[in-house]
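Lecture notes, part 5. Sequence design as translation. It can be helpful to think of inverse folding as translation between two languages: the language of shapes and the language of residues. The source text, in structure tokens, appears below.
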């Protein structure tokens, strides 16, 4: 069965079961197209508290932090904000060393504002002021 046929089947089933439901078709289609994502969200024990699911930006770092938290709590250590911040500082130092080791630097992105000649800026500002008045 093709995906469009499945969507039509779901659409008619939902319409039959819930005739007073006023959800746009595109919303239902988007949810059904991402059903695997939503199934994994529902399997999470905290899913009833989630309003909007946002994927983790750095999943490996998130997993490493989860492992660290599990190890610390298993050892009976009381997890405090100060302890978490200290671990974050250690991770930040490791990250800085990684950047230095691999010669990774922050590069300035030059755009339209970066290419403007600063010497003629007052003159151009005066011209713009005359045009606007």
């Amino acid at each position: 069965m093709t995906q469009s046929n499945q969507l039509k089947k779901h659409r008619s089933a939902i319409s039959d079961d819930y005739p007073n439901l006023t959800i746009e078709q595109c919303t239902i289609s988007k949810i059904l197209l991402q059903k695997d994502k939503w199934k994994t969200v529902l399997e999470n024990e905290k899913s009833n508290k989630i309003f909007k699911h946002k994927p983790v930006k750095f999943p490996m770092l998130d997993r490493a932090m989860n492992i660290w938290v599990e190890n610390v709590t298993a050892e009976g250590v009381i997890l405090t904000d100060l302890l978490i911040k200290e671990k974050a500082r250690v991770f930040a130092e490791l990250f800085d060393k990684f950047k230095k080791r691999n010669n990774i630097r922050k590069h300035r992105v030059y755009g339209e504002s970066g290419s403007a000649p600063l010497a003629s800026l007052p003159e151009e500002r005066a011209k713009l002021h005359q045009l606007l008045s």
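The translated text above is only one of many valid answers, since several sequences can fold into similar shapes. The chain has a mean pLDDT of 77.
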